[in-house]
Amino acid sequence: MYDRPPEVSDGLRLHLNENTAGCSPRVLDALRGLTARDIGCYPGYEAAIRECAAYLGVSDDQVLLCNGLDEGLMALALVCLGPGAAAGGRPEAVIPEPAFELYRIYTDIAGGHVVAVPPRPDFRFALSEILEAITPRTRLVFLTNPNNPTGTRIARSEIHEVLARAPADATVFLDEAYADFSGETFLDELPRHPHLVIGRTFAKSHGLAGIRIGCLIGAASTLLPFRRVVPVYSVNAAAVAALGAALGDRAHVAWYVAQVEASKALMYDACDRLGLGYIVSAANFVLVKAGDRARALVDGLAARRIHVRDRGHQPGCAGCVRIATGVVDDTRRCVAAMEDVLCGDR
Ligand SMILES: Cc1ncc(COP(=O)(O)O)c(C=O)c1O
């Protein structure tokens, strides 16, 4: 079961990789513009799908909007791993660890078997181990670029090798939740790979986590079984309005991505000063290797109303704390508090 973090209503939220600036002001205007009738009707998606497809550079029938990418992950698991997915044995999902925890949870719910690939000590993509883990029973391979919780990248050539090894009736899922921060995408390769599905969320770079909107992208025929599983009106009228406005404000996203870059540099410097290790990240967070100071760091920051995420229970992550690096002023506040917690008694 997902270990839902306790709700925090105040303080600085750096524990869920959210956008610390929130959404574009244009999104708020769009939401204020909703009428009683808009709310009273089931939502129409056509315009939102068109805008989303144009933003991603694909055709409309290659986009399946969902209620957060989480819902897309659930659909993937149900279709690829549910009853009847593999004749003569339990269908398998290959999950390179450490990974976004819902991959494992949805695999279990769908009745699939998790084939976990342990991490390398430096968290570099474990290509040969992943290729070895793929069998004729593999129905789903989860890849995340950049990865959560490490922020590490996967090279294009490595994705190609996984696609070449996966059985023809398996789906290779590439989660690009944090792609706007790395500036890398595999979307242009979709036409060459019919069993590839890419996931995007607008929760992170576009700051729409509270609205719940994401999508699956793939060849039109590949998406058909997933369309049958995603509830008909799972994306609500507010999300439809918010998405159009958010996609229309590219300057907001570009500004935020630049804030994240500057914030990561501040976080690396702070770690160097404090003698903490870290993984260089292509996403909007940094995995800090705090070792036996991890608990003190998490608790000390929480006491100062700064919330970060202990990842110590994930494979290979003992002593690791994940910290979102968003708006520079927020990161400065976090860094000052880290110094206070770890050096306060000097
Ligand atoms: C790798 C990854 N995939 C998917 C999601 C879910 O995105 P959403 O908020 O759109 O459900 C997250 C959220 O943290 C994530 O880190």
Explain what you see.
Helix 1 runs antiparallel to helix 10 (237-247), helix 4 (69-81) crosses helix 9 and helix 12 (294-303) packs across helix 13. By secondary structure, this protein is α/β, with parallel strands linked by helices. It is globular, with a radius of gyration of 20 Å. The strands form 3 sheets. The chain has a 7-stranded mixed beta sheet with strand order 2-8-7-6-5-3-4, with helices on both faces. It has helices spanning 25-32, 36-40, 46-56, 69-81, 101-110, 127-133, 156-165, 179-182, 220-229, 237-247, 250-274, 294-303, 328-343, and strands at residues 12-13, 63-66, 92-96, 113-117, 138-144, 171-175, 196-201, 214-217, 277-279, 285-289, 306-307, 309-310, 320-324. The structure holds pyridoxal-5'-phosphate. Residues 17, 68-70, 100, 144, 148, 175, 177, 201, 203, 209, 214 line the site of pyridoxal-5'-phosphate. Pyridoxal-5'-phosphate is lined by residues 17, 68-70, 100, 144, 148, 175, 177, 201, 203, 209, 214.
